[in-house]
Design goal:
Elements (H helix, E strand, L loop, with lengths): L1 H6 L5 H51 L1
Length: 64
Amino acid sequence: MTVGKLAIPRVEAYGYDSYKMEEALMNQRVKIIAISIAVAAGLMGIAYFAAAQVIGFMAKMHGS
């Protein structure tokens, strides 16, 4: 706690609080972006897998 007070010159409580709020918002935004990227990657993986299954099935049908 004291380290934070030393690192950030605490001119007024409001300024300090808004800084902390901004930091929290940034962390949240980073988390949201990371989650959305993970979800998108997951969906892409599922789509590729499904496409591979369909192509494999089509190839089997044509082969026999």
